[in-house]
Amino acid sequence: MAATPIAPAAGRLGVLTPGLGAVSTTFIAGVEAIRLGLAEPIGSLTQLGTIRLGKRTEGRSPLIRDFVPLAGLEDLVFGAWDIFPDSAYESALKAGVLERSLIESLRPQLEKVLPLPAVFDQRFVKRLDGPHVKTRGTLRDKAEALKEDIRAFQRDSGADRLVMIWCASTETFLEPGPAHQSLAAFEKALSEDDPSIAPSMIYAYAALSLGIPYANGAPNLSADIPALEELALAQGSPISGKDFKTGQTLMKTILAPGFKARLIGLSGWFSTNILGNRDGEVLDDPESFKTKEESKLGVLDSILQPHLYPQLYGSLYHKVRINYYPPRGDNKEGWDNIDIFGWLGYPMQIKVDFLCRDSILAAPIVLDLALFLDMAKRAGMKGIQEWLSFYFKSPIHARGLYPEHDLFIQLMKLKNTLRHLRGEELITHLGLEYYD
After folding, report:
1. What digits encode the pLDDT tens for the residues 192-216?
2. pTM of the model
3. Phi-psi map region of 400: left, alpha, beta (phi>0 left; psi -120 to 50 alpha)
4. How confident is the model over 366-390, as pLDDT tens digits?
5. Does the N-terminal peptide bond of residue 351 adopt cis geometry, omega within 30 degrees of 0?
6. Which of 228, 378, 419, 427 shows the greatest Cβ crowding within 10 Å of its Cβ?
7. Where is the Myo-inositol-1-phosphate synthase GAPDH-like domain (predicted)?
8. CA Rg, the chain, in Å?
């Protein structure tokens, strides 16, 4: 099997984040701490993960970062936009995710990351408002202003390549409409200030227009529309999303495949969350919660395939709630009550109480996506990158197909994509006489 040519990761990689809140500052501070030897990159597949090559008897399991040509952490530079003018240092203090002593030790690096004025429309994030926004011109003008921001950042930072990762808030629920169906329609809508164009779409458009890979860490439509998929293909840009898979949904994509594998039935799955950070405040608005709810609810249906197993999952009642509770801050609690049934239909229950740190789980996802998307761009990969579904609650996928939510299948797909790129045999687990 021939390897795919991949351009070397030479020079600096600029990571641009719309949003300089809890997730992005935790990511930036984390990278800086790791570079200084103050911490380890726990949770990052690109930094700590290995990949098996060939048969088990060969004993070849290099680190992923040694197997494929990824940018090094020492080569990363950071840029951002936000509706508040706070530096990454000030924002990290307000987010309250990291210990103050760690933030203070990184103060010189974090103070250098100053957000640019954001493209913002309060109709799409009703619980937030801030003064640091672009106010002049049409949506098309704002898209051009973002592109100018990107060019200036690249020039000033010395970045040789760029990626953009949406780390801002969840927008209100939006169905795809006429303006989203083609690039021509989308660009016309930008010029006409069409109200169906959300800010996240403008960021995606600006990045993809410049050939920059784009990932969406929230459940917004963002680049998950035909118009921007068309642009990504035309400009040779990889895209991925939606919605970082962190707390409660991560647990669902671990547990549900196990139930299905053992053909254990499910009658109900009730999930509730309490969360006190900016994300929790935004999701306290019913229209923003609707966007998140759609992302969370689709996971079980896809994994369990009730149309194939109606007696096990055809009557599953799935309920999701998110409650804004300021005292909890970024330390989200996800509580699940799972009603299962087994042999002869006898009922059982499972209770899961996951006291997680939302941004701590999200930060390594931002890092991995930045490095993998940059590599994909250098490998000539463009459009939707389904092999990165591993990182998302609601993975974007080829139209006409269903998304893969099973975490373990997603990981196999990701690693087999890396094997394919490097000309290695794919691992199929067929048995000793084949690929064992």
Report:
1. 999 999 999 999 999 999 999 999 9
2. 0.94
3. left
4. 999 999 999 999 999 999 999 999 9
5. no
6. 228
7. 247-359
8. 22
* Residue carrying the six token digits 């395939």: 305
80: its two tokens: 């951002």
Sign of CA dihedral 170, 175, 181, 185: negative
Positive or negative CA dihedral for 275, 280, 285, 288?
A: negative
**pLDDT (tens digit per residue) in 105-141:** 999 999 999 999 999 999 999 888 999 999 999 999 9
Crossing angle between the packed helical segments 139-157 and 183-191, to the nearest 10 degrees: 100
Distance CA 42, CA 19 (A): 23
Q: Strand 383-384 to strand 238-241: parallel, antiparallel, or no bridges (unpaired)? A: parallel
Q: Which domains are assigned to the chain?
A: 12-244+359-421 (3.40.50.720), 248-355 (3.30.360.10)
- Helices in 74-224 by DSSP H: which ranges? 88-95, 100-105, 107-111, 139-157, 183-191, 199-209
Strand partners, 30: none
Q: How far separated are the first and last CA of the chain, in Å rounded?
A: 18
Give the list of residues 6+ apart from residue 74 with CB closer than 8 angstroms, or none. 35
Alpha-carbon gap, residue 171 to 321, rounded angstroms: 17
b/e 33-65 (16+ beta carbons within 10 angstroms → b): bbeeeeeebebbbbbebebebeeeeeeeeeebb
Nearest to 126 by CA among 193, 83, 171: 171
Residues forming beta bridges with residue 323, ordered by sequence position: 274
Strands (E), 8-124: 12-18, 76-82, 116-117
Residue 184 corresponds to which amino acid?
A
DSSP 315: T
Count of beta carbons in the 10 Å neighbourhood of residue 355: 11
